[in-house]
Amino acid sequence: MRILVVNVNTTQSITDAIGKQAAGAASPGTEIVPLTPSFGAESVEGNYESYLAAVAVMETVRAHPEPFDAVIQAGYGEHGREGLQELLDVPVVDITEAAASTAQFLGRRYSVVTTLDRTVPLIEERLEVAGLSARCASVRASGLAVLELERDEQAAVDAITEQAARAVEDDRAEVICLGCGGMAGLAERVVERTGVPVVDGVAAAVTIAESLVRLGLSTSKVRTYARPRPKRIVNWPPKAG
Fold first, then answer.
1. Is 0.90 topped by the overall pTM?
2. Is residue 113 pLDDT above 70, yes or no?
3. Lowest mean pLDDT among 11-25, 101-115, 135-149, 166-180
4. What is the 3-state secondary structure (H, E, C) of the chain?
5. In what order do the strands lie in the sheet with 2-7?
6. What pLDDT was estimated at residue 149?
7. CA-closest candidate to residue 112, choices 129, 99, 130
8. Which residues have CB under 8 Å from 71's CB, separation 6+?
9. What's the CA gap between 114 and 93, in Å, rounded?
10. Within 13 Å, how many C-alpha atoms sit on residue 186's CB side?
């Protein structure tokens, strides 16, 4: 089995961390192929960057040679999963939805701990669109930008575990979801602080993607995610200069 894991930003070190986390969760015989878009922002923390990332991810996957058996969109709250589902005949799994749906097997209510406060509405919106918001106790911001997660690991751990503990104590969450692909590998530290199950979206997405492939299931093409109708697209891709 071959699974593409696509970072939504252009920072290679984050792609490497996501790829490592995905490979660690994969079953024997599953090949993980991490991909970095060739254009876009170095981190995705707002609507403009998110929509740009959606186009970048779709074009990155379209350009990648087949065969592959599934695609994971490794960005929290980002747009674009629906476009990939239209384009592809293989399963497409978004880490936001993978983490939240997995959390619902583990406790009555879950909370998401993410990066900056400005990303909170994007995640809330994605959970609502996916039908996963009813059991979400809260979406909490650690106050750290995506790239800060790499620059000062201890500060990142402290900020994330603090918000996770507050989610459990104040919001009555029973499960924590790590709300950023760049948080890959931090689950154990959060478990130590909170004592509750912690779901890493990348690891959850790999497991879900593998299950869908083994079951022989993929996206329905009857209506919502039917292939794009053939039509002329003007000046795409844009020419340099």
1. yes
2. yes
3. 135-149
4. CEEEEEECCCCHHHHHHHHHHHHHHCCCCCEEEEECCCCCCCCCCCHHHHHHHHHHHHHHHHHCCCCCCEEEEECCCCCCHHHHHHHCCCCEEEHHHHHHHHHCCCCCCEEEEECCHHHHHHHHHHHHHCCCCCCEEEEEECCCCCCHHHHCHHHHHHHHHHHHHHHHHHCCCCEEEECCHHHCCCHHHHHHHHCCCEEEHHHHHHHHHHHHHHCCCCCCCCCCCCCCCCCCCCCCCCCCC
5. 31-35, 2-7, 70-74, 92-94
6. 72
7. 99
8. 3, 4, 5, 6, 61, 84, 88, 90, 91, 92, 93, 209
9. 19
10. 28
- Cα–Cα distance between 11 and 233 in angstroms, integer? 29
* C-beta atoms surrounding 145 within 10 Å: 14
Structure-block tokens of residue 226? 């039917």
pLDDT higher than threshold 90 for residue 111: yes
CB 10 within 8 A of CB 173: no
Task: Give tens-digit pLDDT for 135-168.
Answer: 999 999 998 887 877 777 788 888 889 999 999 9
